[in-house]
Amino acid sequence: MGLNATPSAERLHIGFFGARNAGKSSVVNAVTGQQMSVVSEVKGTTTDPVTKSMELLPLGPVVIIDTPGFDDRGELGELRVKRTRQILNRADCAVLVVDGTVGLSEADREMIHLFKQKSIPYLIAFNKQDISTPAELPEGAVAVSAKTGEGIEELKNRIGGLVRTDGPSVRLVGDMIQPGETVVLVIPIDSSAPKGRLILPQQQAIRDILESGASALVTRETELADTLKKLKEPPALVVTDSQAFKLVDAVTPKEVPLTSFSILMARYKGFLAQAVEGVAAIDRLQDGDTVLISEGCTHHRQCEDIGTVKIPNWLRKYTEKELQIETSSGLGFPDDLSKYRLIIHCGGCMLNGREMVDRQKCAADAGIPFTNYGITIAYVNGILRRSLGIFPELLAMLPKE
């Protein structure tokens, strides 16, 4: 990814869905103006979701997702249908491609039902208009031909109108600081830190602070005490990697607001209140309970990995219980959550906001408490109230001390 590229998690995700041989991949290629997907007369050519980052006006940076036919049959077909349904969890809007020579099938109607169930804005594209008999289209549908290009420009314009982009933008940290203030960012450089670069939340925080007219001062936890002493005035805020929460809390003066990248990211992704509410479930864990620790990214696990080593160790030490720990990463999130007593998720920087909210909703529907890394680490270290001090409305959710 180039320095000027918008991260995938920050792009609108547009999913193209349809039955096999509806010409879905051909429509995707026509919309993107390139051979993004292999097309063939053979049903089921697209066997796995194919994604492409691009600019689509008036929406701007988007991710186009071409999915396998959801009417596939057989064991492999069922897996492809499952993958297609998973895409719904991260689709900000959807295009249902229908074979115009056949019309709406039962499978198409089932997909429309899923769009409505998940509150996904959608439109229907009736393909193959070059060979189909003109018929009255359902309200809001678009007639297109991937072969001749008929209706493709209208389809692109209609996609652009599916999702509002003129609403208030969500800030990571910039809305909590004033121009001229200083924010100290504490970034440990250990074996788990990516070599030669900063992780996405750290990059986003720096950019957001600069756009606010404030100053970002970056230091390691080992130099934090000296850094604070050298400042003429206390910083407006200290933001730390959650793994260093305990040390940073001890070093940072109590009058200086303190939080973590993970907590800011939970707010940015829209599930901070649920994470605060869910963390109390830690005190209810019993011997033998299973906890799911989930990450939105996939990376090589280090010996001191936060998700598979540090958080499990902190949990067992805090609860003094024999807990069963399971993990998931990337786009792999369990369909059945019933066996878990708690889900602890990362900040979700590599997942778009819709997927993070969908995961939280799946947990809520199953009655499973859902929290995140930063909230959990602050809680087991006894500093949750301080870490939420910049969010007065959330402090009211905590038990009184």
From TrEMBL:
GO molecular function, one term: GTP binding
Residues of the G domain: 14-128
Keyword 4Fe-4S: no
Pfam families xref list: HydF_dimer (PF18128), HydF_tetramer (PF18133), MMR_HSR1 (PF01926)
InterPro entries named among the record's database cross-references: FeFe-hyd_GTPase_HydF, GTP-bd, HydF_dimer, HydF_tetramer, P-loop_NTPase, Small_GTP-bd
GO biological process terms, semicolon-separated: tRNA methylation; tRNA wobble uridine modification
GO terms under cellular component: cytoplasm
Domain of life according to the entry: Bacteria
Annotated ranges, domain Hydrogen maturase F tetramerization: 274-388
Span of domain Hydrogen maturase F dimerization: 172-270
Keywords from the UniProt entry: GTP-binding, Nucleotide-binding
Name of the molecule in the record: [FeFe] hydrogenase H-cluster maturation GTPase HydF
Gene source species: Candidatus Faecivivens stercoravium
Gene name of this polypeptide: hydF
